[in-house]
Specification:
This is Exocyst complex component. The chain is mainly α. About 75% of the residues lie in helices and about 0% in strands. It has helices spanning about 5-20, 25-35, 40-85, 90-115, 115-125, 130-145, 150-210, 230-235, 240-250, 255-270, 285-305, 315-335, 340-360, 365-395, 410-415, 425, 440-460, 465-495, 500-515, 515-525, 540-570, 585-600, 605-630, 640-655, 675-685, 690-695, 705-715, 720-730, 730-755, and strands spanning about 405, 430-435. The radius of gyration is 49 Å and the shape is flat.
């Protein structure tokens, strides 16, 4: 065969292979092996395969980016759907749930109706013909048969047979009552599981619609069996009730049967509603209690809808009213023992499921939701106790030092925990220090965790967004004003807290105060309620942190004064020294050094706080020095001692003049020592004539010297020692000095007396 013909034949075979179904390709392949140039065909086949591979690769490359873009868009859609899911209102969710519940109820009712036709048919096939036969025998056949003996025997046995049938059916009923008592827990568990799955199914359907993903159900394989969850009729055979009811009805004793059935069920209700004494210890205890109650009323609801009048709506509602009051009373008692917020939260979710289940059967459950609102206060108190421990632990573990940051990653991590912005600090190179300690981001995180915990409880309580927002804000205010406030006071007042720690507490509370508006926004974001609404509750965080800061400031002032007192206790003046020294006393030099070191730490404090602390310390020092001079134990003071005392006061004035903290205008800080300065100038310069002449005038040189103070000090300078007086009479200068002192003392007393009168 010519090469052109062979090539054409091979091309034809290749087209057949490409276009022929795989089931019919056999003859084509046979023609390849039967033909010539088999190797040449294989080469051509390989070439065709490579061409197709290149086309496939080209097509894949062409569509690959589109595929990637589609996946990216799908992921974005999933993220947006998640946000949309959260933003959907609760009313829409409940509407979908109720639709699903109604559909389920209709299906279940239909199945029940059809299923329970079977026992009725079976009963009529077994018992009804027998009862009809007995009635026919008694009313028609036997009277017509005449007075035969066998007729009389049969007539006598008819009541016995009726009684036997009645007794057998009653025995079956008692077995049924025992059965539902045993299965009540399981029936209730099944009913609550149905509601739980129905809620999930409604939510999943909503999510599926939002995502627009047809195969979303593939992701939820374990929730497909909703319709296969067994109902009450699957767990309990109700035919004994129907049979007994019909027999008693035929026998004319329906009222007796109804009375017996209701009486027995009331007894069972009392047992079901009696909780175990240790029910509060675990969630399972509550779960069993709810399952039994639900199981009881599911059975009664089933009987109500499948029998004609054995129980009526009024009877069932009366039972439910009693059950509701006893259930609520039991829950109030047992939940009051609970101290675990997680258990309270789980219990709340279980009560919601319990209420939703019974509401689906038409029972009113508003009182249960009212009780859940009462439990919300208890839950809040338990949360406050838990968070009190958390805050105390944070306080005890804090090092009260600015947070060192070595890398950008660390800086961003802390900024993510706490909303902190400082452009100047951001410009600084690493390593650097944040002004606050670990206390701040930890407390802020705990505040957010508390808000989340409050939000969890408010879910599914049929509350509006505004009500949830108000509840969270009020609970958070309690946390701020009561729990956190007390913990901050604990941190401020606890033993061994130093000035450095108090300074850090002031810095910490300042930053937490500035973060309060972020907390406002955080709550608004999770409740979808704007923080500036007319009725919106405002957070008291600003006042809480401000009060704590003021308390810490007062504690700083107090601690500074205590430190000053400790140094003053080391003062050891020689009050009878003949001449003063040229240098300040050692204790005072140490005190001034301490104050300089302390005020250098105040650089991060608000200026007003540092200035107030410095002025307070100087005033206390001045007052304490004066008290030291006028102490009752100091009976005599020499001029030499006064000179040494004056040197010490000058050292204090030098400290004040140096400006230990910035912000004072002129010599404002020197005014703290003005009383001491004027008193010492009066005595060291012995300028009594000026003092006595100008006393009482606004321009008096010694305006701040109180005559009582001057008199007390002057009395100490009198030589009252008998021994000294004996030697003093030989020293004319001493005698003249004593006379002068006596004269001034007399004039001061006259001055005091004149102004008192």
């Amino acid at each position: 065969m010519a090469s052109a013909e062979i090539a054409a034949e091979h091309e034809r075979i290749l087209r057949e292979i490409e276009s022929t179904d795989t089931n019919c390709i056999g003859p084509t392949l046979r023609s390849v092996y039967d033909g010539q140039e088999h190797g040449l065909f294989m080469d051509k086949l390989e070439g065709r395969i490579r061409n197709h591979d290149r086309e496939i690769e080209k097509m894949c490359n062409h569509h690959f980016q589109g595929f990637v873009d589609s996946i990216t868009e799908l992921l974005k859609v999933r993220g947006e759907a998640q946000k949309l899911k959260v933003s959907k209102t609760k009313e829409r969710h409940e509407q979908r749930y109720m639709q699903c519940r109604l559909q389920q109820r209709n299906i279940a009712t239909t199945i029940d109706k059809l299923t329970h036709c079977l026992p009725g048919v079976a009963f009529r096939a077994q018992y009804y013909p027998a009862l009809c036969t007995l009635e026919q025998l008694e009313q028609s056949c036997l009277p017509k048969a005449g007075g035969y003996r066998f007729c009389a025997i049969m007539a006598e046995n008819i009541p016995v047979l009726r009684t036997h049938i009645r007794d057998v059916s009653m025995s079956d009923l008692k077995d049924f009552l025992e059965s539902i008592r045993k299965h009540s827990d399981k029936i209730g568990e099944t009913a609550m599981k149905q509601v739980g799955l129905c809620v999930f199914s409604a939510f999943a359907g909503l999510l599926q619609g939002l995502l627009g993903i047809v195969r979303y159900d593939v992701m939820l394989p374990h929730h497909r069996g909703l319709s296969t969850v067994p109902g009450a009729h699957d767990l309990v055979d109700f035919s004994p009730v129907y049979r007994c009811l019909h027999i008693y009805t035929v026998l004319g004793s329906r009222d007796t049967f109804e009375s017996y059935y209701r009486k027995q069920r009331r007894k069972q209700a009392r047992l079901v509603l009696q909780p175990h004494s240790n029910m509060h210890e675990t969630l399972e205890g509550y779960r069993r209690y709810f399952n039994q109650i639900v199981g009881f009323f599911v059975v009664e609801d089933h009987i109500l809808h499948t029998t004609q009048g054995l129980v009526n709506r009024a009877y069932v509602e009366e039972l439910w009213e009693v059950a509701l009051s006893k259930t609520i009373a039991a829950l109030r008692t047992h939940s009051s023992y609970c101290t675990d917020p997680d258990l309270i939260l789980d219990l709340k979710n279980l009560i919601v499921l319990f209420a939703d289940t019974l509401q689906g059967y038409g029972f009113p459950v508003n009182q249960l939701f009212d009780m859940l609102l009462e439990m919300r206060d208890q839950y809040g108190e338990i949360l406050l106790k838990k968070w009190n421990l958390s805050f105390r632990q944070i306080i005890d573990q804090d090092n009260y030092s600015p947070i060192p940051v070595s890398t950008e990653e660390e800086y961003r991590r802390i900024s993510g925990q706490f909303p902190f912005q400082d452009p100047e600090l951001e410009k600084m190179s690493f390593p650097k220090k944040l002004p606050f300690s670990e206390f701040v981001p930890k407390v802020y995180s705990q505040l957010k965790e508390f808000i989340y915990a409050c939000l969890k409880y408010s879910e599914d309580l049929h509350l509006s967004s505004t009500e949830i927002d108000d509840m969270i804000r009020k609970s958070t205010n309690l946390l701020l004003t009561r729990t956190l406030s007390h913990c901050l006071q604990y941190a401020i007042k606890k033993k061994n807290v130093g000035l450095a720690e108090l300074v850090q507490i002031i810095i910490n509370t300042t930053h937490l105060e500035m973060s309060c508006h972020y907390l406002e926004e955080f709550i608004s974001n999770i409740t979808n309620v704007p923080p500036d609404g007319v009725n919106a509750t405002k957070l008291y965080g600003t006042s809480t942190f401000k009060d704590a800061r003021h308390s810490a400031e007062e504690e700083i002032y107090t601690n500074l004064n205590l430190k000053i007192d400790q140094f003053l206790q080391l003062a050891d003046y020689d009050w009878m020294a003949a001449q003063g020294g040229g240098q300040a006393s050692d204790y005072l030099s140490d005190l001034i050094a301490f104050l300089c070191s302390t005020f250098s730490v105040f650089t991060h404090l608000p200026g007003k706080v540092a200035q107030t602390a410095c002025m307070s310390a100087c005033k206390h020092l001045s007052t304490s020095l004066l008290q030291l001079l006028l102490e009752a134990d100091v009976r005599q003071v020499s001029m030499g001692a006064l000179q040494q005392f004056n040197v010490d006061v000058k050292e204090c004035e030098r400290f004040a003049r140096a400006g230990p903290v910035p912000g004072f205008q002129g010599d404002t800080l020197l005014l703290a020592f003005i009383d001491l300065r004027q008193l010492l100038d009066l005595f060291t310069q012995w300028d009594w004539s000026t003092y006595l002449a100008d006393y009482g005038r606004p321009t008096c040189k010694y305006l701040r010297v109180n005559p009582h103070t001057a008199l007390a000090l002057l009395e100490k300078m009198k030589d009252t020692s008998r021994k000294n007086n004996m030697f003093a009479q030989f020293r004319k200068n001493e005698r003249d000095k004593q006379k002068l002192i006596d004269t001034v003392v007399k004039q001061l007393r006259n001055l005091i007396a004149a102004h008192q009168s």
